[in-house]
Amino acid sequence: MLDLTTGLPMSVEAIDAAWLGAALTSGLGETVRVDDLRVTHIVWGNATKVCVEATYGRAPASLPARLCVKGGFDDRVAEVGSPAQLVLEAEFYGTVRSHLTARLPRSFYAAGSPSGDQGIVILEDLTTRGVRFVDAGQTLGPDEVASGLEAQAAWHASTWGSVPGSIPGVRVGGADRRGARLFFNEKYWARHFAEEGAPKLPAGLDDRERVRDGFRALWAYDDAGVHSLQHGDAHPGNTYVEADGTVVFLDWAAYFWGHWAYDVALFLTGSLETDDRRRQEEGLLRHYLDALATNGGPALPFADAWREYGRHQLRGLLWAVSPSVMQPFERSRPMCDRHAAAVEDHGTLALLGV
């Protein structure tokens, strides 16, 4: 359940024992008293993760002491971040997740402020279970990519053919459209690529207007198509790997109704080095299509799916223009290189008619 409430903490310092106890009581529907609270570590970002250890005076036996409070606590990303994404993730854990067949972290509270300036979720601290986190820019093994594609196929199949209203609050089109208005601004483009260490686009893709027109064509194409739920930012840095090798997706702050290939192209291409992707993408795409049909989705012809996969390679180019305050250049450079190579390999801009 999503808690719409005022008085959400806006800083790390405001996360105290009294607030945590009240939040957990609201989220769990039974009384939780927190006698003491210790911050163990913080991962800063647009959605900052504040890991805490609680000492309970009263709590359900199943409630772990180690928790992760995730919300907007970093003023440094205010210019390029968006509190709307924080609220969107709270809505995901409070409302949307119950409609999906997907393995997800345990959540204990989800709240958004009525003004839309803050969204907070309280999750299990996954470090206590020994999962392996993946940084953006790192790669996954082919079996792990296959596992991630199976997860995508399951939630795509269960929401296939959805329309606005199928799940309250889910919209057509992703948050990348809002970011692209900044990224394709002429002044931003010139300033960004002039920064030391910024990613570099190959000749033919360093044309701001052509790439912008490609995105516009892709959005129009997707809006007219069949929709399912898209994670919206399905790169390897938004995953973790369970001890059994299962890949689980995190950071559900950009989901929307869209085309299946949006998630698939972004995840598959971003998770493999270019040469590995070229060798294995056909087999991995077939694996996704088989999983989609097995989970009750449509049996898509491979030739058609291959073209859709090729069209949707364009989304990955946003790595090239992502500001360093959101993703350090040492992470965005390898991701840019992988996605730019795939755009060239698949003739993506030509498929989009630009």
Any descriptors?
single chain; 354 residues; alpha+beta; 6-stranded mixed β-sheet
**Number of separate strands:** 11
Query: Helicity, in percent?
Result: 40-55%
User: Using only CA atoms, what is the Rg?
Assistant: 20 Å
Distance between the termini: 44 Å
Write down the overall mean pLDDT: 93
Dominant shape: globular
SSE sequence, one letter per element: EHEEEHEEEHHHHEEEEHHHHHH
Question: What topology, given as strand order, has the largest sheet?
Answer: 1-5-6-4-3-2
How many distinct helices?
12
Stretches where pLDDT falls below 50 for ≥5 residues?
Answer: none
Derived structural class? alpha+beta
Strand content: 15-25%
Largest sheet: 6 strands, mixed
Structure description:
With 354 residues, the protein is α+β, with helices and mostly antiparallel strands. 40% of the residues lie in helices and 16% in strands. The chain has helices at 17-28, 83-94, 142-158, 176-183, 186-194, 208-223, 260-270, 274-294, 302-311, 318-321, 329-346, 348-351; strands at 3-4, 33-43, 48-58, 66-71, 107-112, 119-124, 132-133, 228-230, 239-241, 247-249, 256-258. The strands form three sheets. The protein has a six-stranded mixed beta sheet with strand order 1-5-6-4-3-2. A three-stranded antiparallel beta sheet has the order 7-9-10. Helix 3 packs antiparallel against helix 7 (260-270) and helix 7 crosses helix 9. The N and C termini lie far apart (44 Å). 43% of the residues are buried.
